[in-house]
Design goal:
Elements lengths: L13 E4 L5 E4 L12 H11 L1 H7 L14 H13 L6 H5 L4 H6 L12 H10 L2 H8 L1 H8 L7 E8 L2 E2 L8 E3 L6 E4 L2 E5 L4 E5 L11 H14 L4 E6 L6 H9 L3 E4 L5 H6 L1 H15 L6 H16 L6 H6 L1
Parallel strand pairs: 3-9, 9-10
Antiparallel strand pairs: 1-2, 3-7, 4-6, 5-6, 7-8
């Protein structure tokens, strides 16, 4: 059995008097506090770009109308804003479900009902259809194309895989060996313009080779050429993408491409004159190379560390340069 005191409560305020200042009144009624200070800027960016609204249109409903408590827009916005603030796990949705700042930018009262928790977001992820996922994957390119009123004269796209280290037992997170990686990771495929506009971000397991990217690159190139048939398109890739069928496709579509070749002994033997000319041109312009061989690698790392430790350049000095 519990009892509650019936004694009349007296509201009190602390008073703090500072020298040469008026008396300060202190209480604990500070109003609403949010742990997500930048969430209003994120919400404004979403409103201006319309990206969240475009994504919502691509997600097929998975719930009966009579059981819907939270709209897809609320679910997606909550997850995106939390992720952009550094809280990327579904569990974070439960931890911040009563954050007044997050609720406010989602159009809810700060002291109103709670936002969706982790279980609701997990059901959304597990219920996402293959068609919805494909449409969401196409969103960056569609957004980029929609921002151009006229077809550009030329467009350069860079493709590359990006290693993202993982911890724990995430699905499709696979160990990848070798001197370059030696870690458990994802290896997503990214495509962006030379100005930095994202066109594609496809999550892949950690052991996927870039040489298997024919389908993704083909789809992206064909979508661009369908919208802009006269654009001068150039594709830039490293040696990992050097696959005959992909190069044949690009030549068939009359797409310019720059692709790396592995520096094998047979390749070097056929380009001795070119390599010699490049070395001589480098020495003429910059002098003898400083970072050659194994000792050069250590020296380069040391120099790299020194450069990163330099203080930021002042605005005055930047203008002089």
């Amino acid at each position: 059995m519990s009892t509650e005191s019936k004694a009349k409560r007296v509201e009190r305020q602390a008073r703090l008097t500072l020298k040469n200042c008026k008396a300060q009144k202190i209480d604990d009624g500070g109003g609403f506090l949010t742990a997500l200070g930048g969430v209003t800027s994120l919400a404004k960016a979403a409103e201006v770009t319309g990206l969240v609204a475009m994504a919502v249109e691509r997600i097929e409903p998975w719930r009966d109308e009579g059981l819907v408590e939270h709209e897809i827009k609320t679910l997606l916005s909550q997850r995106l804003y939390l992720g952009a603030c550094g809280h990327t796990d579904a569990l974070d949705c439960s931890l911040f479900k009563d954050d007044p700042g997050l609720k406010s930018v989602l159009g809810l009262e700060p002291d109103g009902p709670s936002l969706p928790s982790q279980s609701t977001h997990t059901r959304m992820e597990n219920s996402m259809s293959e068609d919805s996922l494909n449409k969401l994957e196409e969103l960056p390119l569609e957004y980029f194309l929609s921002r151009h009123e006229h077809e550009p004269r030329e467009l350069t796209i860079y493709f590359d895989g990006s290693a993202i280290r993982t911890y724990g037992s995430q699905q499709n997170s696979i160990y990848r060996g070798g001197k370059k990686y030696s870690q458990t990771q994802y290896f997503p495929l990214l495509a962006a313009t030379k100005e930095g506009h994202l066109l594609l971000a496809k999550l892949r397991s950690g052991n996927v080779s870039d040489a298997t990217s024919l389908a993704e690159i083909t789809k992206l190139v064909e979508a661009i050429l369908e919208r802009w048939p006269h654009v001068k398109l150039t594709i830039v890739m490293d040696a990992g993408f050097n696959e005959p069928h992909l190069l044949d496709f690009l030549e068939e579509k009359k797409v310019n491409y720059v692709v790396g070749y592995p520096a094998t002994s047979s390749i070097k033997s056929n380009f001795k004159d070119t390599i010699k000319a490049a070395e001589e041109g480098f020495k003429k312009e910059f002098g003898e190379p400083k970072f050659k061989g194994k000792a050069g690698e250590k020296a380069w790392q040391k120099e790299h560390t020194r450069l990163r430790a330099l203080p930021p350049m002042s605005e005055k000095r930047r203008r002089r340069q």
